[in-house]
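Technical note accompanying the year-one report. For the benefit of new consortium partners, we illustrate the data format agreed upon in the data management plan: each record pairs a sequence with a structure-token string. No post-processing was applied to the example shown here.
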Amino acid sequence: MLQTQDPRPPVPPRWSGKPIVLIGLMGVGKSTVGRRLAQRMKLDFVDADNEIEHAAGMTIAEIFQRFGEDHFRDGERRVIARLIDGRPKVIATGGGAFMQAETRDLILDQALAIWLDASPDVLADRVRRRDTRPLLRGKDPKRVLTDLARVRNPVYALAPVHVVSQHAPHDATVTAILKAIGQ
């Protein structure tokens, strides 16, 4: 017997009150969109990178420089585990957080992961405005982001909700997220 696939795209899950975790490459707008999403949903917003800096008493760039990426990722995992406490909120993560298996499993199990996606061209245009990203120091942002997208996008695609961010106001992305999660 021949089986055919359902031609309709899968329906994203409706929001059930779990923490919402925004994932995606640097520059996609996780922090800005996250703040606005939380405001529209009347939820708390937490930026995991800010929490990491607060806990470490130094910037992410300083952590990378002094201790390396592995040390940073370990601290990031612990902070995200603390933030995912079962209470409804919106959490913005750093671009590499979801790439760590233990962190990814935690997010997928105890939160609603939303992949914010954008083309490397859009991302490169956005990140050129600030020189605070350790992975871009002294490099061509578009090339780095294209390479990161090639490696990370298949992993980000494990998130049950996928929203594409365009050259448009961030509120358009917030509206797309709300629609995708049935709010």
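Partners are asked to follow this layout when depositing records. The helical segments are 30-41, 48-56, 60-67, 69-83, 101-110, 120-127, 141-156, 170-180.
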